[in-house]
């Protein structure tokens, strides 16, 4: 089975008809999280170590994006 394809039951369960719809939604989700994190980082610049967990979040998002660009699903 093609690793890039997402099982039909997963798509249906999450309310999508096609793999590309699912992937577009995930990309939007990541973008929204990243934008929110960026807004939060700008707001927390005054805190002495308020950005520590932002950096952890950023590393996590980068790892997720790298994983998705490879085309693996469900790892």
| SS content category | mainly alpha
Order of helices and strands: HHH
Oligomer: single chain
Q: Report the strand count.
A: 0
| Major beta-sheet overview | none
What's the pLDDT, averaged over the residues?
72
Proportion of residues in helical segments? 55-70%
Q: What value does the Rg take, in angstroms?
A: 16 Å
Number of discrete helical segments: 3
Rounded to the nearest angstrom, the distance between the terminal CA atoms is 15 Å
Uncertain runs are none
Number of domain units: 1
Strand fraction equals under 5%
- What coarse outline follows from CA principal-axis ratios? elongated
Description:
- The protein is mostly helical and 75 residues long.
- It has helices spanning 8-13, 19-43, 52-70.
- The longest helix has 25 residues, at 19-43.
